Amino acid sequence: MFETQNYEVTKGINYEYVYMKRNDDSKPTLLFLHGFPSSFYCWRHQINYFSKQGYGCLAPNLMGYGKTYSPLDEHEYKAKSMVQHLISLPDHLNLTKVIVLGHDWGVRPATRFVLYHPERTLGLILFNVGYEPPAKRDVEKVLQFTRETFGYELFGYWEFINSDDAAKIFEENADGALDIWYSSDPTLWKTDLAPLGRLREWMTKKKRTNRASYLTDKDYEIVRQVITEGVQSKLNWYKSFIVNIDWDDEKDLDPTIKRPVLYVAGTKDYILVPQFFANQKQHIPNLETIELNTSHWTMEEKPEDVNQIVEKWIEKIV
Description:
This protein is α/β, with parallel strands linked by helices. Helices cover about 40% and strands about 15% of the residues. Helix 1 crosses helix 14 and helix 7 (about 175-180) packs across helix 10 (about 215-230). It is globular and about 55 Å long. The protein starts with a strand and ends with a helix. The relative contact order is 0.16. It comes from Adineta steineri.
């Protein structure tokens, strides 16, 4: 495990993070933003590799995770606020510009970091989740669209996550939750996770399956600790998004990403399917897309491939 530090980014709001200072001035610092149900630990292979190559590596636990500020009020989970928190970390560490990497829910603050503060970034790397420009979203319409387009609701499980008893059910059946989230069979997401009602059924019937081989016993224990501690704070990422918490802040934002972007998609990710983000290129003048034969946890499934792809792309843009 990495040695963590803590910093009060603003009064009463603390962030836990890992920081490896660069030892080669020609190489940038990478800001790693994780998703659900994860932590900075999901970037372990990248942090180990890039720190050894001389890059700086900064990986915070985002709101709701670890020892970072974890409010129970979903209205505190605004992307604009999180970006201000995240800007405070490079300020504290005397870093002027970073390359931002986001995975899963980490893509939300990663893209907004670049929208709000392009001058503090050199580039943006998105894993599995593509760029979604500011918009007011109707979840029912999204579910209908994905059902008609892909044959099932890609985000039907949000209904369960948004329910009052979801956190308790997660905490009581952590092993079953992690089985489906890190399944060795990615197609289970099409049948037992994504469609409406299926995740609740999986959890309440305490179903189990084989976990993916890339997750060692040690990895699993760390991830399991994440999902059994303060689950409601983590689910607030979904709840805040469902109620369009960012719309008032973002409705007048220029949606164009003014930095180079690398989008790494997983062809066996059956929820965040690459086709769902096909339109992102209209808002990203400088976009490179690479597809890997992975499910959702691309950086953990194929770390060597990811590290080579990322390093090659960084060398092109810096």
